[in-house]
Amino acid sequence: GNNHLNAKLVLLGDMGAGKSSLVLRFVKGQFLEFQESTIGAAFFSQTLAVNDATVKLEIWDTAGQERYHSLAPMYYRGAAAAIIVYDITNMDSFERAKKWVLELQKQGNPNMVTALAGNKADLEDKRKVTAEEAGAYADENGLFFMETSAKTAANVNDIFYEIAKRLPHF
Ligand code: GTP
Ligand code: MG
Fold first, then answer.
1. 7 vs 53: CA distance, rounded Å
2. Which contiguous run of DSSP H or E holds residue 10?
3. Which of 11, 14, 21 to mutate to test the pocket of ligand 1 (most atoms within 8 A of CB)?
4. What integer is the mean pLDDT of 38-63?
5. CA dihedral in degrees (148, 153, 158, 160; nearest 10)?
6. Are residues 139 and 101 in contact, defined by beta-carbon separation less than 8 angstroms?
């Protein structure tokens, strides 16, 4: 019937921002202090219940290292949703996130549901990017914004669930 949806979701962001850690937390409930840097991309899937429906998220966890940048369009093309991740302790990673936003605005699907995730929110004492600055940037660019922690699990299920709720046909 009409109550099941498959949706492709891509994670983009600087190396070390915590893309793989967010996915591992969401899909397996795990966190690794020494998560290995992704090579190419990794695929995961997870099914969520949203209202009376189910959404199967087909998740592409891309590699943030610059040498893999040219692969990214293969993963964001045709994606219904994206999470652009930065690390709240690293201003460069926030600048890199803004570049991903621009790239998606130019080349991505115009109806893509896009979230901005300020990850490593557990590291408050090392914070370099304020929630106010990132939230204002997100508002100006039509993104929804959450600070997350793959380590403590704060807001991790929430950000994937919020994406699922915003997909067309809900
Ligand atoms: P690439 O695959 O290279 O693009 O990196 P990535 O964005 O997938 O980052 P990854 O998940 O590999 O995390 C990088 C490092 O940050 C790892 O050592 C993680 O343990 C750590 N990390 C990830 N998320 C968090 C978090 O929320 N809090 C803290 N304290 N550390 C985190
Ligand atoms: Mg990774």
1. 13
2. strand 4-13
3. 21
4. 96
5. 80
6. no
